[in-house]
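Lab notes, practical 5.
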Amino acid sequence: MKHVLLCLIVSASLVSLRSAQAQSGELPLRPGDRITITVGAIPDNEVAQIRGVYTVSDSGTINLLHIGQVRASGLKPSALQLSIEETYRSREIYTRPNVLVSIDSVGDATMRQVTITGVNKPGAVPFKQNMTLSQAIMTAGGPTPFASMRKVKLIRAGRAPTVHNLSSGSGNPSVDVQVQPDDQIIVPE
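Output from the prediction step:
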């Protein structure tokens, strides 16, 4: 009885942790993304057959051992983890698989980026989770000597730019907002 209760508590904690991860700003997967999948609590000889780097296909799926095509596009990594685990359980392939999915930042072709101008190294910089405007600008070599940090423009999803005064330094989350993949940042002269 104690063992069953302990298993229920651990399972509830794991679900709670994964739910928190899903709400912590994970990015939804999209075609072309490279993801790393690791798996545990299954036979050792099958771990190596599943574990690896997968590329989300143009149709938004990945192909996994025993279950075939699994929809990945549009799902956050934690939601894909749960989907894979549930599919293995519901098809009675594995009883308690433990899956971990993470976006692989290797490979320039699928790397998510932020584009920046008005900096010492203009162009695309790799996107990192929780990256702010100031951090993105510094990653691109900082503003040019003639650039003004008072009216930094952020263009997101083709909408009208928002203007941010970063001259007082970073750290204020209402001014130094987090960037998203494919954002464009313009540091004007």
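Observations recorded by the TA: The longest strand covers residues 34-40. Residues 25-103 form a domain with the wza like fold fold (CATH 3.30.1950.10).
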